[in-house]
Design goal:
Layout lengths: L40 H9 L3 H13 L7 H13 L3 H13 L7 H13 L3 H13 L7 H13 L3 H13 L1 H4 L1 H16 L3 H13 L7 H12 L4 H13 L5 H13 L3 H12 L28
């Protein structure tokens, strides 16, 4: 029998603290093709001892990641603390992460909150996002959704795309109490994240279009947002769009299978199962027998998160 196109999706909100982008090479290496990282440790150590906070931070990253040196989390954390105490906000962000996760130091989540806040207040917006996620999820400290909202929105509007998606997820979680206005805030945050390059935010806009939450219900608009998410590197969006093409009102089975194949090649196991089911079912018709992402029969599992 035909499996209806379900309009449900379980949002997976990343709770992993983001880290600053990779550091640029040392000034001495710019323009000459770079040098072996192992050769940087000595000069950076010398500069750090001379009071160069950026050198302390860079050396800390090397010891944290084992780049050019043997991994040494305690030394890395000590270097981050030294640089942070001197006002290097990137180092403060790393120090807070170390304190929150117990990397090279005893876990001290409350102190991590304070250090993240210091970096955030100083203008390091990634720290605002990390603190917002820590408070949203209650990792080592009591959850504080109101404060998390403010921090995630601040990071989002400060140019951290993932924070926009996280803020939209939080809006969705609280929408049952906030009503239509909360869904509109959700959509606004997702649009900021999508426009800034986070495909997950684009995917969430597609789902919101399917469900008519915060925007008019529209399969054509949903397809546009899902396509925008799928093409960079979001296999879940490819899977959802693929099943829309196979089971939707305007069907394109060949295109649907191409999208499922793209998602399957990206290691989306549910897409692989759906691809096999549509092939065995003879083109995605009445006997497709697609299994939902939630593990029950009924098509695509594409649900926005319920309220807390």
């Amino acid at each position: 029998m035909r499996v209806p196109l379900a309009l449900l999706f379980a949002v997976a909100c990343s709770s992993t603290p983001s880290r600053p982008p990779p550091l640029p090479p040392d000034d001495a290496a710019v323009g000459d093709g770079g040098i072996d990282p192992a050769e940087l440790a000595g000069p950076l150590d010398h500069k750090c001892n001379g009071g160069d906070l950026e050198a302390c931070f860079r050396l800390g990253v090397m010891y944290a990641e084992g780049t050019g040196v043997s991994p040494d989390p305690p030394r890395a954390t000590a270097l981050f603390r030294q640089a942070c105490n001197g006002g290097n906000l990137s180092a403060c962000n790393y120090l807070a992460l170390a304190l929150a996760e117990g990397m090279g130091v005893e876990r001290q989540p409350q102190q991590a909150v304070e250090v993240y806040q210091k970096a955030c207040d100083g203008g390091y917006k990634t720290a605002c996002r990390n603190l917002g996620m820590m408070l949203r999820d209650g990792r080592g400290v009591p959850a504080d959704l109101a404060r998390a909202e403010v921090l995630l929105d601040r990071a989002c509007r400060g140019g951290v795309p993932l924070a926009c998606t996280n803020a939209g997820d939080l809006d969705a979680l609280r929408a049952t109490k906030g009503g239509p206005a909360r869904y509109k805030e959700m959509v606004a945050h997702y649009k900021l994240g999508c426009d800034a390059g986070d495909p997950t935010a684009c995917r969430q806009l597609g789902i919101a279009s399917l469900e008519g939450k915060g925007m008019p219900k529209s399969q054509s608009a949903a397809a546009m947002w899902l396509e925008r998410a799928c093409m960079p590197d979001d296999p879940v969006a490819c899977r959802l769009l693929g099943m829309m093409k196979i089971q939707g009102a305007v069907r394109d089975v060949e295109r649907g299978r191409q999208l499922l194949t793209r998602a399957c090649d990206a290691k989306d196991e549910e897409a692989c199962r759906m691809l096999k089911a549509t092939t065995e079912g003879g083109g995605g018709g009445d006997d497709a027998g697609v299994v939902s992402g939630g593990g029950a029969s009924g098509g695509i599992d594409a649900r926005l998160p319920p309220g807390p």
